[in-house]
Amino acid sequence: MARTVTGPTDRVVVVGAGLAGLSAALRLAGAGRQVTVLERESVPGGRAGQLELEGASGTYRIDTGPTVLTMPDLIADAFDSVGEDMADWLELSPVAPLYRSFYPDGSRLDVHANVDEMAEEIRTVIGPQEAAGYRRYVDFVSELYRYEMTDFIDRNIDSPFDLLTPNLARLVAIGGFRKLAPKVRQFLRDPRTERVFSFQAMYAGLSPYDALAIYAVIAYMDSVAGVYFPKGGMHAVPEAMAAAAEKHGVDFRYDTEVTRVETRGQRAVAVHTAGGERMEADVVVLNPDLPVAYRDLLGRSPWSVRRLDYSPSCFLLLAGSSASYSQIAHHNIHFGRSWKGVFRELIDEKRLMSDPSLLVTNPSHSDPGLAPDGKHIYYVLFPTPNLDAPIDWRTEGPRYRDEVVRVLEERGYRGFGDAIEVESTTTPLDWERRGMERGAPFAAAHSFLQTGPFRPSNIWGDNVVFAGSGTQPGVGVPMVLVSGRLAAERVLGHDPLYRSRALR
Q1: What is the pTM (predicted TM-score) of this model?
Q2: DSSP per-residue codes, 259-322
Q3: What are the pLDDT digits (tens) for 275-301?
Q4: Three-class secondary structure assignment of 362-382
Q5: Sequence-separated (6 or more) residues with CB below 8 Å from residue 96
């Protein structure tokens, strides 16, 4: 049995209304606990926030955090824990194609969740042998998902010995602990398919040449299980979760910054706010970035946190624009000529990409109501080194913004700069100011010694529990939602009632 908090658990204070904190709050409320959520911003969401930018033609509502939503059953499960149907709170539509990938030779490949449709796309663009290899790759990542999810992702792990299950042997047997890139090449020989089905390693903070093949499970989550978009933008997800939680008795206090957790020995007894309030608690759930929560709220810096290496960061340009581009889809990946070089520069050499690969999301493609009539929204993400790199973003930020626009126009977004009506940029320094250690929104990298039982635990002392991407199981919207459930289980104990419908 996994370790649980000790002592009473009637009054729970959740610090932070991010997706993980909301996932935990719903489950705790559903189990009859008295839950209070303290959030420093005026709205829920954490990293899944939304900006309202006023332009000459009206208001642009632009998501500021994750844009790719997969495995919505994990969200439905959180609603289910309080007896609510997600469909009553949230309108989700499948994104098709999932991605549109553009390559430097001028070719284009659409990624589809339907295996037959994707195989036909690959057969048409590349050839029948590659299409057959893709089908075998889907079989491989589907096996990975079955073996990983229950035993290694969707459970609290206290010790490496917890991994000794029959599924561990199955993962070893299918090559899950080999390197990702060579494993992908066993199935996909064309550089275009190899890239589009292995770039997800960046979410884990690693090059596909360094990441373990088990991280191909991320490719399963979006490229096989499908991608969705909520009406109203990604921020609609935390807004709906918070509304459902409030209906079921969770007390939300926005514009309330927590400054420290008061402890007696190994036990949290209260949290203190910037407004001078002291709030007693039986259990404290911390949703801020784990290293920041340890340092700033608990006043501790354990070795398990000090030793961490962090993922690359990113430069984000959010733009409301009068320009439209008929060649793009909702999510668009533009690959440069360099591939290995991108990871070498970002991770090993800690410098900006000389030949960028980048993501452009066009949310108004699926929900025109996010922008004024006839206008469009562009979410442009360029991976960058984190703040371990010797880059002064106070001076580099404006210069790099212009470089981003130049590259976009070079990659087919003609007149992009001149068409911008409103914009906002986020640099690694800005991510740090928002509470992300080393300015890394993808948290600690998922190297072998920072994964599973080797990642910082989600429980400290007698009654402090962590949720979010900095703890187990890791980065990404599905993982963060799972982390909220795992945090609740540290409080409630393992109860099959609260296991995910997605995994049954």
Answers
A1: 0.95
A2: EEEEEETTEEEEEEETTS-EEE-SEEEE-S-HHHIIIIII----HHHHT--B--EEEEEEEEES
A3: 999 999 999 999 999 999 999 999 999
A4: CHHHCCHHHCCCCCEEEEEEE
A5: 112, 113
